Known about the structure:
Chain A has helices spanning about 1-15, 55-65, 85-90, 105-110, 145-155, 170-185, 200-205, 220-225, 275-290, 290-300, 310-330; strands at about 40-45, 75, 100, 125-140, 160-165, 190-195, 215, 230-235, 260-265. Chain A has about 325 residues and is of the alpha/beta class.
Amino acid sequence: xxxxxxxxxxxxxxxxxxxxxxxxxxxxxxxxxxxxxxxxxxxxxxxxxxxxxxxxxxxxxxxxxxxxxxxxxxxxxxxxxxxxxxxxxxxxxxxxxxxxxxxxxxxxxxxxxxxxxxxxxxxxxxxxxxxxxxxxxxxxxxxxxxxxxxxxxxxxxxxxxxxxxxxxxxxxxxxxxxxxxxxxxxxxxxxxxxxxxxxxxxxxxxxxxxxxxxxxxxxxxxxxxxxxxxxxxxxxxxxxxxxxxxxxxxxxxxxxxxxxxxxxxxxxxxxxxxxxxxxxxxxxxxxxxxxxxxxxxxxxxxxxxxxxxxxxxxxxxxxxxxxxxxxxxxxxx
Amino acid sequence: xxxxxxxxxxxxxxxxxxxxxxxxxxxxxxxxxxxxxxxxxxxxxxxxxxxxxxxxxxxxxxxxxxxxxxxxxxxxxxxxxxxxxxxxxxxxxxxxxxxxxxxxxxxxxxxxxxxxxxxxxxxxxxxxxxxxxxxxxxxxxxxxxxxxxxxxxxxxxxxxxxxxxxxxxxxxxxxxxxxxxxxxxxxxxxxxxxxxxxxxxxxxxxxxxxxxxxxxxxxxxxxxxxxxxxxxxxxxxxxxxxxxxxxxxxxxxxxxxxxxxxxxxxxxxxxxxxxxxxxxxxxxxxxxxxxxxxxxxxxxxxxxxxxxxxxxxxxxxxxxxxxxxxxxxxxxxxxxxxxxxxxxxxxxxxxxxxxxxxxxxxxxxxxxxxxxxxxxxxxxxxxxxxxxxxxxxxxxxxxxxxxxxxxxxxxxxxxxxxxxxxxxxxxxxxxxxxxxxxxxxxxxxxxxxxxxxxxxxxxxxxxxxxxxxxxxxxxxxxxxxxxxxxxxxxxxxxxxxxxxxx
Lengths: 333, 502
């Protein structure tokens, strides 16, 4: 019997998702008279392939929207241009039922000249949904016991150690190690940076002894630190992570470095204040849901919420920060 | 002892009626998806995620894993019947499998794939149960330099093994490597050959090339056959399934394929594809009748099909022991772990033995189900051969188009696919093998990036490529393959010259 209802529910959600939008007139309870609410299927556009990167965030939002009867939603994977195709697709819509999940690449793509889309004017930031810090990690048998010793070695010879930043050239991972080097007075351009297909490749290459250091979003390193195969030297966050309380922040070690990759939900370029307010209310609810909290916890990210206006301010500051760093690394156009 | 108890507990999880049902649903979906060209297991698994919310984590993962290895069974079907591999790991199967179908032995080719997949998969699970940890250590020995050498050996094997002459094979490989350079270069961040189109910035998806070259190309050339020459295709001949002689010829390839598949599959990256190439290479080189390969040798189907299934099990090893996905599909599985709040990683075996062993042991059950499902399905699938060309070709075109569009919802990719279709038709006309090009597109990117990563690590010294036992071993194998091929070509020429003299 349980199975039957489940099958029916699945069939229904497929039917709804495939266009019978009229059926999904679930009223959104708070401020029902004034605030804008979705009146048809919401498209959540994701710039990575199914299963990867921010696809998980997209599917978590889809789950909350559906389960809490806010709206029917589908996830659309538009892979390409380092997320640029997804952002561009949503940017040009005139319909607020399209949202995109964005990450740091939104800034670096524009700064490097890879994408024309200006993150400060061509999209509407709806809500800031959280961020994840970078971990500087070595193998347990590495001679470097703390970040100070590692930076001493890099000061002697910046190119003496191979450092992987995953696929994130110029992004959060790269900025983690580059800012540390800068704090020590080392020219970050001289570091021997190796680029891999992603965080998992950094992990296997570090464990296999093919590279010396990885500067990578912390979810990649934490399980290996817990298992005793890697040592995290420091985290580029303001506070220690609950899952690895023994690991200091870089700040505690005397290097004032903050670097992280954020998740921001974007809407099309032109949106009315009512539409923005409607999405803020929905996304706030998402960020407070168990589903979202679980996702953030499982990927070691911190669940931090900013509304549209705050996110806009944050974007301006973050763009400036990224541009300065990328200029120093010789990567700005 | 403790570990043994966990393994047995795993059986009690995987044999619960609910989990048996989800295993069945998973493998059934996998089979269906494997048959559709273009819609690969990773896309299907990702689409499943929202429907898994109501389930517990173990059941959901069992079902998704079922889709994954089930699709490996289905992948052979289109390779054999319509010469269209659904994944890169079935490309080698298409070479001899399709020729067998044209000679009336489609049933045998499908049967040997099903048996090979079953045996390869099962051996893989036994090995996974016993050897997961030591194999992980061995796989970590593969760094950029080792990967580069491995890709070099694999591509050398491909171009020397397929088609009528090594020169044509090499040409095909080079064109494939060229296509693989399109897109953003990881190391420098530079965009190459994208012609200002954002759609090309991530490169050209392998599926577009394979569907174009194989499916569309085949449709075009079948159209020509239909109008201009009499078809020499024999639909079905003799026993539907395997004859005693075919069984005898397949036994050793299946045994070797199981071993190769699992060992190579453990390597993250292109494990299943490389495994199928290696298996084909071993079979052709150890055969007493290498000239039959490419013309419908059953060994050329049995080996690679076993190997790619063994490898799909093998790629679960790095996922479970390190939390590192070995392929696109296992990356989706990894995503599912995270969705369920499970942190994959080196501690998973200690923290969630019920889940790990429940999942692993469900694969034994799933493989039995797949065999029981696929053998009777052969009776239905071979009926495809009797569909009139005028109906079959449009169906292939429609499925191909949907498959390509489903990847990124991108129209430009449809045009690209058509372009590769025409290229595939031309290749057939001038007798250049397709497999090297397609496989070079898959492996070329990894090969180039590994080369550059290795060069960065060694600060520009080539000595890194002979710096470890593994790289030296791989180099020896590569040189060996080349010598073998040129010796073979020379002696064949001599034989032909002698025959002319006589």
